[in-house]
Amino acid sequence: MTEIFGDVGLLIPILVVVFLFLTSAIKIVREYERLVVFRLGRLIGEKGPGFVLVIPIVDKLVRISLRIITLDVPSQEVITRDNVTTSVNAVVYYRVVEPNRAVNNVEDFKMATAQLAQTTLRSVAGQADLDELLSEREKLNSKIQSILDEATDPWGIKVTAVEIKDVVIPESLQKAISRQATAERERRAVIVQADGEREAAGRIAEAAKTLAAQEGSFYVRLLRTLPEIASQQGNLIAFPLPIELKHLLPDPALIQEPKKQKKDE
Question: Is 69-169 assigned to CATH 1.20.120.1200?
């Protein structure tokens, strides 16, 4: 009996060791993850996804996510090419495409990518004018993405997108830009008004030619205009007298003669 309990006492530690060994040897890797395996310090490759069996103690594992990482680049103080001090921030989207290189070629790929993004943002923004920062962001985004993608390629990283979020300029410059925009809108309004007057003048000239070409058309137009005048508030209506009826008016000289005679009397 004592021997049986002794054998069981020896078997329990062995079973515990085996259980711990199997627990350490079996790894479950998600679909979006990869395991970079180092065996006795030597890189043997990546494993996953799914069920992965490794050798405990001998194998060292680094778990890498293949999902897109969102990097918020903090605001960077920049002096543009036209000597304007601005503050620019951006967001960078990237993902690991080669886990082996991301682990083996750079100590901390996240920190390295973040620092590179900040310096690239300052460099590209400093080479652009303020107008380019405000109106040509797509061009600058593509340029920053191209530089980052090329620089991070040895690290096994793919930069998928870069977006400049905000450009902060001094308040005094904001007022100057506002005045410039107001002046531009006023200039356009004047041009549009002048174009409208020119077009209206051309139409009026065509209408005058049409009225002059046909006898009596002026009077027809006049009669059509009188109801519009009469419908408005007011009692005074100016009625132009046709020139053809001038002979019906009394001679002004005859009107003034009685006054002269009265003075002589």
Answer: no
